[in-house]
Amino acid sequence: MVKAVVLGAAGGIGQPLSLLLKSNPAVTELGLYDIVNAPGVAVDLSHIATPAKVQGYLPPDDGLKKVLTGADVVVIPAGIPRKPGMTRDDLFKINAGIVRDLATGIATTAPKAFVLVISNPVNSTVPIVAEVFKKHGVFDPKRIFGVTTLDVVRASTFVSEVLGDLSLTTSVTVPVVGGHSGVTIVPLLSQSSHPLPSGLQQSTVDDLINRIQFGGDEVVKAKDGAGSATLSMAYAGAEFAGKVIRALKGEKGIVAPTYVNLAADKVGGEALKKELGKDLEYFSAPVELGPNGVEKINGLGKITPAETVLVKAALPDLATNIEKGVTFVQVPKL
Ligand SMILES: NC(=O)C1=CN([C@@H]2O[C@H](COP(=O)(O)OP(=O)(O)OC[C@H]3O[C@@H](n4cnc5c(N)ncnc54)[C@H](O)[C@@H]3O)[C@@H](O)[C@H]2O)C=CC1
Ligand SMILES: O=C([O-])CC(=O)C(=O)O
């Protein structure tokens, strides 16, 4: 029995993500929550002939508490998306408070649930969730994840395009590490399951890296004011949630890049900090998942000098983003 909950379920990501979770036969209960329209989305999905029992809630009458009761996995795509010209950090002003309040609900009602944070800026919203959990004395770093899967999905697609064979997309895997914004997104192309041809021009490789790092901007620009990635994000969110659920049910050996608190695996986390040469509290790395969440944080592995430069370039922004999230909860503005 697995109860999955989506907070922000009526939104651009929330609706298709809820559809994909309803399509996952391992989900037996699906709770949907939003400040608008969640009951409507729930009734619509409830007609689909898959096992999950779907229920939708709004804030009145303790809706948040009701949806979170008994939750095993909580996915959070609540919050505003970017418009052209905005950075993900520009979303902090509004989304930080939304995520803090939802995290408070989870900490008090479902403190053991796995929390999968999609709301941007992920580099800061994950620390916000963690700090809220610490305040409530229920913090377990193994159970809080920043969803960076879309970067991994984009890397598979764009590498396949460069290889000239889109049929490879489902089998190409490229680890993407760091964080989830601009230069903090670091694809490790040297570890691609399908290596790039050795004669490839450097400018082609540089363009590929840039496209993976700024893939979000491509969608924001194309949607021209109507938001950011929703459908590809729903796909990526469902993929990551599916892996977390499989691990929760006991399947072994599932590894996925995700943005976690490095205290989740003391040995692996400390080794990674050594590799980075910096005492960062959060980083996206390939993580082995288990029934208790993070089982093992893997290091960067063998990377090229050029990739070392990219990793180093990610560190200052990451440190600033993390500090911003932590401070928001620890030192609230009056
Ligand atoms: N991690 C990632 O890779 C990605 C993250 N995102 C982020 O996901 C977030 C959501 O994006 P969209 O779905 O496109 O936005 P959207 O505006 O379409 O949907 C957001 C939903 O959140 C709801 N909401 C707002 N405040 C809430 C609250 N306090 N409680 C519950 N629900 C609340 C809204 O009513 C709305 O239905 C944005 O912050 C966006 O930047 C988007 C794409 C990729
Ligand atoms: O670009 C955005 O604002 C949404 C996002 O995180 C992505 O598509 O990777």
Descriptive report:
The protein is an alpha/beta fold. It has eleven helices and eleven strands. It is 44% helix and 16% strand. It folds into two domains: 3-146, NAD(P)-binding Rossmann-like Domain (Rossmann fold, 3-Layer(aba) Sandwich); 148-334, Lactate dehydrogenase/glycoside hydrolase, family 4, C-terminal (L-2-Hydroxyisocaproate Dehydrogenase, Chain A, domain 2, Alpha-Beta Complex), CATH 3.90.110. The radius of gyration is 19 Å and the shape is globular. Strands 3-2-1-4-5-6 form a six-stranded parallel beta sheet, sandwiched between helices. Strands 9-10-11 form a three-stranded antiparallel beta sheet. It has helices spanning 14-22, 38-46, 63-68, 92-109, 122-135, 149-163, 202-213, 215-223, 231-248, 266-276, 305-330; strands at residues 3-7, 29-33, 53-57, 73-76, 114-117, 144-146, 176-178, 185-187, 254-261, 282-290, 293-297. The model has no long low-confidence stretch (mean pLDDT 97). α4 (92-109) runs parallel beside α5 (122-135). It binds 1,4-dihydronicotinamide adenine dinucleotide and oxaloacetate ion. 1,4-dihydronicotinamide adenine dinucleotide is lined by residues 7-8, 10-14, 33-36, 77-82, 91, 95, 98, 102, 118-120, 122, 147, 150, 180, 227-230, 233. Homodimer. NAD(+) binds at residues 8-14, 34, 95, 118-120, 233. Substrate binds at residues 82, 88, 120, 154.
